[in-house]
Structure formats: structure tokens, C-alpha cells
């Protein structure tokens, strides 16, 4: 429990806040390498803040400063994102010792709104508009925003999670009784598309991104319209179209499954198209970005982490018929033309 009065006083003093009139815990996740505690704190004057205590191996103090700068940039551009508070030493964080571990505390404004119950076509389109606006504003920043790493969607870096998942799956499939022909086809296509993307990657525009544009970080108003984006703790530097492809594919899988669709990928296509349409209204893609988007979405959908986990689970359970069906689905994702109007 985060109920240490002395610790709370240190946080209040550092961020020059009055005493808290109310304090409600909204999140507490803790393991040996990762701590995340979030409270909604209300002061006597009626203002509300998100008070966070965190510790993990992938963030640095420079990243915390970058998160605060990115929030300030986007807020200044008219987007409703949390504003980080700066402390008495001019920093947007405070380092502390808690339960024998070093942690940092941040405080940001609490945004009104609620998490949407499901993703709709209209909300996907609005999400695309916001994501495009975020990328546009980030690309117009007058000075670089410091981050020590990329976003979770970054490709071709030391933390390329997509390639790590793909390699783990290939090794498992090669050692299994899966049909060798589709296995070979899947990974030949994957490597072909990655090779094309690697050549273009250094020439694509990029900058700081929020990094976790998932459904639980979107806020909607009483009419179900998008009214805020929260949670910048995975922010980092990325290629904008790569981030777009990752977030769009992720949100497509998060969508409710509509009745009447002929194939599973048809469901995701509707949400992808809506999000891409909204994105281009805020930030039209350039010719080079358009030329790589189809391959990016293909590899993202074929090797989504949760899909890889499903195939590995079927392999472990010996459900080879299901594994072979999944391989055929991956081939559909890799071969599909998601952007028929875009140059290939």
C-alpha cells in the first residue's frame, strides 16, 4: 500500500502541492523488476492529480524529462493530455527510496473522462486524428526531445520486439511437426518485407511518440467521443509511420468482433481503414511513408505478440491442426493489400 505519510509529504513538498483532501489508489502493479502505483489525489481547492510511483529497468531520468516535455508540447498544440508538474528543483520527477528500492515519483493533472468500453469505427477514426496530430506536432518541435530508447513499436534497434517474437516463433515451428511449406513461406515473406523496410527506415520522418495508444489509455466523454489521451510512461523516439502501423494494428485487434464478417481479418480491416483515414486528415503521409505502410501493417498483423503467443500455446499443447490454420492466416496478413490506393 502507498500510505506512507512521510513519503506523501516529500512528494507534496517537492511539487509544491497543498495537503491532499482525498487519495484513491487506481493501480498497483509490483514485481521484482517493475513497480507501478498510481493514485488519484484531490486537494482542498478541488483540483485532481495523478500521483505515480514507478521503478523499471527500461526508463531513465532522461526519459522522465522527455515524457514531461512531450506532454507539454502536445498540450501546447491543443491536445488534451496530462500536464506534468515540475518540482522545486525544476525537474518533473522526484527520486525516492521505498521498500528498499529506488523509485521515482511524478505528478500530473488528472484528466476527466472514462475508458471506452469497446472500440467503435467512429472512435477508431477519432483515434487516428489524434495520433496524426500528435505526430505532426512532434515533427514540428523546435528542439529535440531527449529519450534514451525507442517506443515499444520501434524496429531495427536493440529492442526490436517484433523480430524477437518472430525468431522465437520460427525456432519453435522449425522444431515442430508443423507443415514445412507454409512455415517457409511465412518467414521468407517476413524477411523480404523487413529487408525492404530496413533500406527505407533511415529516410522516414520520426520523433517522440506516446508509445502506448491502447484502448485503456484513451478517454471518452459522456457521448463516447475521444476527449483525452493519458499514460506516457512508454514514450520514446520512433519512425512515425512505424508507430502508426503498430498502434493501428493493435487497436484493430482490440476491437469488438462484429457479427457478419466473412473472415477474421475483415473485422480488423474496418478499424484499420477508419484509423488511417482519421490519421491522414491530421497528418497526410508522404510518398515514402505510403510506400512502406502496407508492408509494415502486414508484418505487424502477422506477428502480433498475442498471435505469436497463441501459436506457441497451440504448439505446446500439440494442436497442430490449429497451428497450421494460424500459419495460413499469417500468410493472409502478409499478402493482404491494406492500402490499395497507395504506391507499393
From TrEMBL:
It holds the Pfam family APH. Residues 38-285 form the Aminoglycoside phosphotransferase domain. Gene3D superfamilies: 3.90.1200.10. It comes from the Bacteria. Belongs to the pseudomonas-type ThrB family. This is Phosphotransferase. The lineage of its organism: Bacteria, Bacillati, Bacillota, Bacilli, Bacillales.
Amino acid at each position: 500500500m502507498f500510505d506512507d505519510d512521510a513519503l506523501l509529504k516529500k512528494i507534496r513538498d517537492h511539487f509544491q502541492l497543498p495537503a491532499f483532501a482525498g487519495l484513491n489508489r487506481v493501480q498497483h502493479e509490483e514485481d521484482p523488476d517493475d513497480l507501478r502505483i498510481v493514485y488519484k489525489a484531490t486537494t482542498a481547492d478541488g483540483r485532481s492529480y495523478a500521483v505515480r510511483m514507478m521503478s523499471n529497468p527500461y526508463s531513465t531520468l532522461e526519459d522522465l524529462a522527455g515524457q514531461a516535455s512531450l506532454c507539454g508540447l502536445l498540450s501546447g498544440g491543443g491536445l488534451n493530455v496530462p500536464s506534468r508538474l515540475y518540482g522545486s528543483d525544476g525537474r518533473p520527477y522526484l527520486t525516492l527510496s521505498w521498500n528498499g528500492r529506488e523509485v521515482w515519483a511524478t505528478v500530473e493533472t488528472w484528466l476527466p473522462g472514462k475508458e471506452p468500453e469497446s472500440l467503435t469505427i467512429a472512435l477508431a477514426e477519432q483515434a487516428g486524428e489524434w495520433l496524426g496530430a500528435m505526430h505532426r506536432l512532434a515533427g514540428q518541435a523546435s528542439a529535440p526531445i531527449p529519450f534514451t530508447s525507442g517506443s515499444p513499436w520501434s524496429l531495427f534497434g536493440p529492442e526490436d520486439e517484433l523480430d524477437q517474437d518472430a525468431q522465437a516463433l520460427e525456432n519453435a515451428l522449425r522444431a515442430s511437426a508443423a507443415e514445412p511449406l507454409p512455415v517457409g513461406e511465412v518467414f521468407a515473406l517476413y524477411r523480404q518485407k523487413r529487408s525492404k523496410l530496413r533500406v527505407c527506415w533511415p529516410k522516414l520522418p520520426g520523433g517522440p511518440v506516446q508509445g502506448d495508444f491502447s484502448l485503456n489509455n484513451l478517454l471518452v466523454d459522456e457521448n463516447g467521443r475521444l476527449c483525452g489521451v493519458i499514460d506516457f510512461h512508454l514514450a520514446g523516439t520512433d519512425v512515425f509511420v512505424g508507430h502508426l502501423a503498430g498502434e493501428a494494428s493493435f487497436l484493430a485487434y482490440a476491437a469488438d468482433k462484429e457479427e457478419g464478417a466473412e473472415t477474421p481479418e475483415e473485422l480488423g480491416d474496418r478499424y484499420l481503414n477508419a484509423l488511417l483515414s482519421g490519421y491522414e486528415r491530421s497528418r497526410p503521409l508522404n510518398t515514402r511513408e505510403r510506400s512502406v505502410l502496407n508492408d509494415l501493417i502486414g508484418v505487424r498483423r502477422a506477428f502480433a505478440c498475442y498471435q505469436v503467443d497463441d501459436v506457441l500455446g497451440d504448439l505446446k499443447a500439440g494442436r497442430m491442426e490449429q497451428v497450421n490454420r494460424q500459419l495460413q492466416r499469417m500468410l493472409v496478413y502478409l499478402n493482404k493489400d491494406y492500402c490499395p490506393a497507395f504506391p507499393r
